[in-house]
Amino acid sequence: MNPLLILGAGPAASLLAIALARHDMPVLLIGRPRTAPAVEGLSQRVVEALKQLGCHEALALLGPRWHRVSSWNAQEVEMNGEFVVDRVAFDAALLRDVKAAGVELHDGLVRELERGEDGGWCVRWEDGEGRLQRTEAALLAECRGHTAPKMAPDRCAGPTLVSLGRTFDGARPQPRTTFIESFPSGWAWGGVDPQGRAHIQVVVQPASVAAVGGDLDLAHAAALAQLTRLPRRFGMQLKPAGTTRARGIQAALRGGVVGDGYLRVGDAAYTCDPLSGHGMFEAASGAIAAVPVINTLLRRPAQTAVAQRYLRERIETVFASRVEAARQHYAAETHWSDEPFWRQVTQPPVASSLARASVAAATFATRPVVEDGFIVERRVVVSAEHPRGVRFIDGIDLGRLDELLQAGAPAGPSDIGHHLHAPADAVARALRWLQAQSLTTRVGH
Ligand SMILES: Cc1cc2nc3c(=O)[nH]c(=O)nc-3n(C[C@H](O)[C@H](O)[C@H](O)COP(=O)(O)OP(=O)(O)OC[C@H]3O[C@@H](n4cnc5c(N)ncnc54)[C@H](O)[C@@H]3O)c2cc1C
């Protein structure tokens, strides 16, 4: 039986496979590569993750960074640029990186998962020639994106929106630039290149599509007609190069993101509003965060509950912060706040589903943390601002520092530093931080 099987062939699956291979963990990947075209932007942070994991094929595909202009709340702001990729080509390049990392990889469409009597999994899948295959594994990493079968009901699901994307020729040739613009019934993201090829996605409520009888081209044109700045930038001579494509959007946190013999990574765990443009970053950072979890599940099975807790809490915290960031970004657009789209996207999420035990004041608590490639429990400082805890300030382990203070041993920062083999000024800063949290009365200077 294989120790670990990754299902999927998108960024989450590929980056998880590569990250595990870099840590000498045996991996098998089965996935059917994406065929549906999509143009997406990725940030410098994704590029850093690709570099960290040595994804040379994916990096070679990126080309120069595109200039980025945002027109939001009637203010035009030039922002950090982004890289624009054709997702079919990008995912294919990542799969070549997976191969180069020495991972065993099968092009396969997963049909069925079954639980064996020994607690392992039996996965039935169709290979490239349509033959049915069977693979057994002890642990599954579910990375089949937002369509991955659910293990439990969603914990939280935002409104359903629709993205309509269409490519055009004949735009005003200009340096590679992406634009964001809000309008009464939604917002738009567009990119234009020096050849005058433009891609424009509009995000609207499904009702906007229904209003034109479900005709996607008409719905796209109706949204474009509401834009003012973007057409000025792109010019008025846009000629459609193909029809409009629709993609559903819903920020959602899946139930059962980790459980007995499985974990979910990327969109299979939670999806974000693409307003943030963070989906691929979430997939990349989620894959990197899953490595010590998987290492613990496979090599220290006695710590399974701790590893699962770490992953579950990470996913819940990150999801909650992304939902709130998107809501605040939408709320910053005040010109159309009475329009149905803007009223809907500025609603807070259903509170009960994201309810967390609120931390009244900062306190020391035992939490799962990453240490030497494994998940272990350590004392950290938890607070409303840091629900998953802060362990180090300036390299000083706060739990150890607190133990020393409780024991009443050393006097000032330099004595404590001597004890901890750490510089006195770092100890002083950690003491001042604890003081600010009302967790010590010792003076940090
Ligand atoms: C309209 C829209 C615009 C977006 N724009 C951006 C953007 O600009 N920037 C950004 O970073 N993110 C963007 N996102 C989000 C981004 O697309 C996702 O967050 C990202 O693709 C998640 O990666 P993933 O690997 O988890 O899932 P996916 O990319 O969905 O990968 C899932 C993989 O599993 C495979 N698969 C599915 N079912 C099976 C099966 N049964 N058997 C085998 N394989 C299977 C699929 O073919 C695919 O290869 C956007 C999303 C939407 C909807």
Report on the structure:
This protein has 3 domains: 2-55 and 86-155 and 251-334, FAD/NAD(P)-binding domain, CATH 3.50.50; 161-249, 2-Layer Sandwich (D-Amino Acid Oxidase, Chain A, domain 2); 363-436, no CATH class. Helix content is 34%, strand content 30%. The protein contains 14 helices and 23 strands. The strands form 5 sheets. Strands 3, 4, 5, 10, 11, 12, 13, 14 and 15 form a 9-stranded mixed beta sheet that branches. The longest helix is centred in the last third of the chain and has 28 residues, at 304-331. The protein is globular, with a radius of gyration of 24 Å. The N and C termini lie far apart (58 Å). The relative contact order is 0.12. The protein binds flavin-adenine dinucleotide. Flavin-adenine dinucleotide (FAD) binds next to helix 1, strand 3, strand 6, strand 15 and helix 8.
Quickly describe the structure.
By secondary structure, this protein is of the alpha+beta class. The protein is 34% helix and 30% strand. The longest helix is centred in the C-terminal third of the chain and has 28 residues, at 304-331.
